[in-house]
Amino acid sequence: MNLVLIFLITIFSLSLFFYGRSKTKSISIQNNIKLNALPKFYGYYLVLWCSIPALIFLLVWSLFEPVIIKSIIIETAANQGAIFNDKNEANLIYEKIKAIHLGTFFGDIDSILKESAISYAKFLNLFTNSKIVLIFGIVIASVIYSLKKIKNNNKARDDVELILKGLLFASSLIAILTTLGIIFSLLFESIKFFSVINIFDYLFGTNWSPQRAFVSDASKITSAELEEIKDAFGFIPLIAGTSFIALIAMLVAVPIGLFSGIYMAEYASVKVRRISKPIIEILAGIPTVVYGFFAALTVGPFFRQAGESLGLTVSSESALAAGLIMGIMIIPYISSLSDDVINSVPQSLRDGSYAIGATKSETIKQVVIPAALPGIIGSVLLAVSRAIGETMIVVMAAGLAANLTINPLDSTTTITTQIVMILVGDQEFDSPKTQSAFALGLTLFIATLILNYIAQRAVKKYREKYD
Amino acid sequence: MSNIKIKSKNLNVYYGQKQALFDVNLDINEKEVTALIGPSGCGKSTFIRCINRMNDVIDICKVEGNIEIDGIEVNDKELDVVSLRERVGMVFQKPNPFPKSIYDNISYGPKIHGKGETKSELDEIVEKSLRKAALWEEVKDRLDEPGTGLSGGQQQRLCIARAISVNPEVILMDEPCSALDPIATAKIEELIDELKKTYTIVIVTHSMAQAVRVSQKTGFFHLGKVIEVGKTEKIFKNPDNKMTQDYITGRFG
Amino acid sequence: MTKEERLKKRHRSEKRFKLYGVASIFVALLFVLILVQNIFSKGSSAFMKTAINVEVFFDPELLELQNGASSDDILQADFFDITIETLLKAYPAKNLDEENELIDLFSTDAEIEIRKAFLENNNLVGKKINLEITASDDIDQLHKGNYPRDLPEDRRRISNFQLNIYDNLVESKKIVKNFNNYFFKNGDSRNPELAGIGGALVGSFYSILICLLLSFPVAVLASIYLEEFAPKNKITDFIEININNLAAVPSIVYGLLALQILLATIQLPRSTPLVAGITLALMTLPRIIIPCRASLKAVPPSIREGALAVGASKFQSVFHHVVPLALPGTLSGTIIGLAQALGETAPLILIGMVAFVVDIPSTPIDPSSSLPVQVYLWSESAERGFVEKTSATIMMLLSFLIVMNFIAVYLRQKFEKRWN
């Protein structure tokens, strides 16, 4: 239905374009007046007026229609005597009613459901009809308005450009809307979570075991249950595990990435650079799930075997394997950023150093690197933020149990792993366990935000210095 | 007549396909200021960059022919550039102090060459170099402030002090005053006059007045060739070559 | 220390430093090589499947069909008995256990394959034909040499009896390797020999298409606004900060956003390419805007001034002159953004694309998987056959990414003007 409506609106708008164009032409010839804009702009003007209000209306309507119908239906079903205790059961009944309406429900249909299905059909019909009527009303009203404007030979180009400028501005606002959406969706559930679990128990608790936090009824948690789950959401083991794996990753990535970046910027011939730089950047383009697969099926077992032959017990999901592979993933981020940063150090500084008789490595170590330091630190911080937000490698190759450990051969877990584990499979929405995933998401979001902010500031300051 | 310090014989330099210097033969006397003049792109800078092999830094640059310092061939592949540059310092067109403290800017050279083993030795070198560069009085109280915070003229004197710090025999100056105001320029020129007692100085300049003021010997370059070399007085008062005459009287360039 | 010793030491340290650089690059390159080699050696065998040549006799007594039966009848008919009969003829089995072991050598889809052969030629009643029936995963892996046969019997998935049959079949040249059409055609399956990436391919295609349709126009319009029209004020600054930060937000956070807003609030259908596409579009948007703005910025101001000087409006100068010149850079940035989106896994897991979906989605609102999620799902499976399928899926995924990146680089090098 919506597609048909969009199609009709499009066709109508297009025909209006040609109408508007020829109409204004003929007006200008008949009355021998000079138009304020090219005829085609009058065409655009009509198109915009005809389509945009109607399309916006259609979008808003489509967003709200299901929600409104649902609440109406659930209410009428309740009035007719349907019994449901919470939102989930109400949802279930609503889905049943919808299925009956579509004829895809195979099960016992009692009279209440049947009645509701009929009224569902009725409402659906009513909503669709009123939608069509309203849209045509809007189209006609806006077309009449715009035709009148055209007759008066308005400055169509300015108006068209104003509308387009609004469209451009609206597009760039999507970035703000996305940020707001993220903050809203994380905060919404996190606030619920922190109304049950004390924020200090979360931030400073040393025990993370959300699977223990089973509650019979999420809407009224008994005090006994609360006592039970109170210390199941301690964040410390997760941040410890996350930082530990990120640390291993940085120990791999910083030296290799930095030295590759230095070599690329200072030593490599054009030919070597042209070949090896894209190959290293392949590492950044490989999907992380591929690294995860490699870490879990090749590197993990290899470490375990190697450990066994040395008499060590290595968990097959060791922090070392996950950290190592994550480090390799991060190499190109550090190498290409530090390559850029080093390249933007002015040549005059190098010349100054060479001219007193410094060797290349002395110049790099004592002049180039100190000059590029803020930029390099920025790139390392960006890499750290990537490491703590990385999900697939740790989900597949690090463990699930929240151990507080500093043994790299042990398994450990991370924030992102826990988010995935909690939200995969059957979710009881509204349980503290599910909400805790959003609290973790919020923590992660804030942490990466701070890191990125500092890093971008550092890089920007550095750029300004040498521009 | 003073000794010849640097001697170039049939020096040719190419940037890729383009030839920048053609058979340059030029002698530079010890403890004297030699000025190189000529229109932009005539090869003056290229020539002095051959003396301390700074052209090695540019990939596409190829040098043929000979340059000798005290009879030792500079273009010899076996020769260590590092120790060559220790003997031949350089000051650039734009002041380029390192983004470090004033002290570290000066002590960097002695440190890498192992000239100041102890802190007191280094302190001494820093003070001596800054004094020679006539900067000591201005900065002695803020040696740990960044060198980039100084004014343009001070920065350039800092770079001269940096070059002096490793106690070279020759100092090359590539238009050292082109980025400075007249007052700072006057100070640098004064300094050059003082320095020539100890060092052999080669200076590239665009300003003929400056060449007259600071140098004893002048070479005129045009399109990669040396047109005329001689005592500064002679070049500016009574040049042999018509082109030199035209250039110094401002008819072209 | 003499001067010569000192110099020597300095030159040694110079060499050492350079060596570190070479070694680092070498390590990184080596890793790319190991990874690719590992994936290829594990995955290339998945493009072939093992089949067993058997003789099928369409016994009129076991089959309640006449020659020339309609397709509907054939689809309704029971081919089970004929299948069992056929499989048992492959090797003499002495008792029920042995018979079961023999049947286990074949894929569970044997019946469907026999039915299909009958469908293609429906006057086979009473006739005998030779048919290549897909082998079970265990035989498949054994035949490809991925499964060790020198383990003791109790630690092996294949019994001695089955090994005997296998050797016998190999000797009589009954075992063949065919192109694995199931791998491209089928959806997911619990049986590795039947599992395919058909569903995941379609799911990924729809997701990326939706992502492209949503993110590209918005990104281009937003970049044009920010680069050409935006006044220098607080709102513009705020938008810019937002875009830079969004580009660095971990992808899993977008999964949480989609879960809360798209699924819980506006109740779009779970596990579908529609939701995946919207999520990926939100994530890709800032990653496209940044290169788009860079390529707009690279167009020199003289072009704009030239257009304005002949009396074009600001809009005309931007849309007629600046945007076309910036287009190659914009497109290549978009393709690279889409390539990243194609490999993205974490947010899709959260919106339920990990559901076990056998059917190939026909519309973007059918439940579906996607290529990277399929990799994740299969890598969690215990069966050995899935290792090769996972690696092969990765090979497909990587080849798509390589093609996309190649196009992006080509566009940039071929069409982008250099301004000097």
Outline the structure in words.
The complex is a heterotrimer of chains A (467), B (253) and C (420). Chain A is mainly α. Chain A has 16 helices and no strands. Helix content of chain A is 79%, strand content 0%. In chain A, helix 3 (87-102) packs across helix 4 (111-151) and helix 12 packs antiparallel against helix 13. Chain B has 253 residues and is an alpha/beta fold. Chain B has helices at residues 44-51, 81-87, 102-112, 119-132, 136-139, 152-165, 182-195, 208-214, 232-237, 242-248; strands at 4-15, 18-29, 33-37, 61-69, 72-73, 88-91, 170-174, 200-204, 217-222, 225-231. In chain B, 44% of the residues are buried. Chain C folds into 2 domains: 51-180, no CATH class; 198-415, MetI-like fold (Orthogonal Bundle), CATH 1.10.3720.10. Chain C has a 3-stranded antiparallel β-sheet with strand order 2-1-3. The radius of gyration of chain C is 30 Å and the shape is extended. The interface between A and C is large, with 88 and 84 residues.
Binned strand content of chain A: under 5%
The residue ranges of chain A in which pLDDT falls below 50 over 5 or more consecutive positions are none
By secondary-structure content and strand pairing, the structural class of chain A works out as: mainly alpha
Radius of gyration of chain A from CA coordinates: 31 Å
Q: What's the CATH superfamily of the largest domain in chain C, by name? A: MetI-like
SS summary, helix count of chain C: 17
The proportion of residues in beta strands of chain C is: 5-15%
Offer a quick outline of the entry:
Chain A has 467 residues and is mainly alpha-helical.
What labels describe this entry?
heterotrimer, B: 253 residues, alpha/beta, Rossmann fold, six-stranded mixed beta sheet, four-stranded antiparallel beta sheet, 10 helices, 10 strands, 36% helix, C: 420 residues, mainly alpha, MetI-like fold, 2 domains, three-stranded antiparallel beta sheet
Describe the protein's topology.
The complex is a heterotrimer of chains A (467), B (253) and C (420).
Chain A: H1 2-31, H2 39-79, H3 87-102, H4 111-151, H5 156-196, H6 199-204, H7 223-230, H8 236-267, H9 270-285, H10 288-309, H11 319-343, H12 347-355, H13 360-389, H14 392-397, H15 415-423, H16 432-466
Chain B: E1 4-15, E2 18-29, E3 33-37, H1 44-51, E4 61-69, E5 72-73, H2 81-87, E6 88-91, H3 102-112, H4 119-132, H5 136-139, H6 152-165, E7 170-174, H7 182-195, E8 200-204, H8 208-214, E9 217-222, E10 225-231, H9 232-237, H10 242-248
Parallel strand pairs in B: 3-8, 3-9, 6-7, 7-8
Antiparallel strand pairs in B: 1-2, 1-4, 4-5, 9-10
Chain C: H1 3-43, E1 48-57, H2 71-76, H3 80-88, H4 96-103, H5 110-120, E2 128-134, H6 137-143, H7 160-171, E3 175-179, H8 181-185, H9 198-229, H10 234-248, H11 251-265, H12 273-297, H13 301-309, H14 314-342, H15 346-350, H16 371-379, H17 384-415
Antiparallel strand pairs in C: 1-2, 1-3
